[in-house]
Amino acid sequence: MKRASSRQSDAEHAPCKGSSYEINSQLSVGWIAKSLISWFDERGRELPWRSDRTPWGSLVSEFMLQQTQLARVVDHWPRFMAKFPSPRHLASSEESRALSAWEGLGYYRRVRLLRNAAMMIVREHSGATPTSVSALQGLPGVGRYTAGAVASIVAGERAPIVDANVVRVFLRLGGVSRSADDRLAVQWCWNQAERFAEVSRSPGVSNEALMELGGTVCTRRSPNCSACPLQKCCKARAEDMTEAIPLPKRRAVRSRVYMFTALSVSSRGLLLEQRSPSGLWGSMWQPPTVESAKKLSRASVAKAFGLSSAELHVRDRVLFQTTHRAVEFHIFDASRSPSSFPKSAMKLPRKCVRWKDLPAHALSSPLRTLVAGLAIEREQ
Hints:
Blueprint: H1 8-13, H2 29-43, H3 48-51, H4 55-65, H5 70-83, H6 87-91, H7 95-102, H8 109-124, H9 133-136, H10 144-155, H11 164-174, H12 183-199, H13 203-216, H14 235-238, E1 255-263, E2 269-274, E3 285-286, E4 289-292, H15 298-305, E5 312-321, E6 325-334, E7 350-354, H16 365-379
Parallel strand pairs: 1-6
Antiparallel strand pairs: 1-4, 2-3, 2-7, 5-6
């Protein structure tokens, strides 16, 4: 066989050309784009941000979809957009309100960056979300992928996109046996994505179809190759390598963090303090908490709170894992009421929050579950 040509006409009429799919080979991107558009027209999922495409709505969805399961975004996006239907609404809001609206999506740094981006949109773009790659990449938190996704899908710009789904699809099509975080493999995927966007008759649709294929058919585990519109030109399928490509990523080592939390309650409410802006769960609310890299005795925890050991009673232990940390919560009931609880040694803002007002305060997922349980106990 002859090596596949990079010209659209050749690629569209000879989808499986190419005897070699080494890392520097080129996929038949013209045929791939054409096939994916036809497939997406029939099989594309109905998602809330697809039914009413706007630059702002698309930008919000892309921020949410970073490192978050799609099902969660489907649930959160409409509520977030109802509260912040434009950049002006988010830019003028308190950070605490934005954090609260983001609760459950994790990686809260994203909503801070989105809020900063909204401020810049108001300040430098008269409140209208830009749709060009260059302007989008000037916004906080917007990288090459997000800019390309919004610019191509909303405005039809011939911009490439590469995310985890796209990397997996391209590596399998090319039979490239490398991990999805391999620098050379990722750059190769960007090269293919650039050609893909250039030859497509509708780059936004084909880009979205490419991501859709990776999310629904060419999945990480148990890919449904029989339902794939590109199966005839997939090197990994031809060599029975779909489960082996991409190679496994190097596993991140989770550091263990210990959090010792004291519950100080009264008939009025629960004592909360606000975490510092930086770090894990920045600016979110929590009951008074001592954080440590090692496990502490109850006496040490009590001393850190300014209490005696007799004023802390063991309640529960909860393990919560993030991508980079294993957080071990040790929960105590405190004998002291919110009004008499010692002041924070870290001088963190504190207040007694009424039970009915707790839902309006942004808490981490494990603490939200804990506080919800407390509220139920109070009602019984």
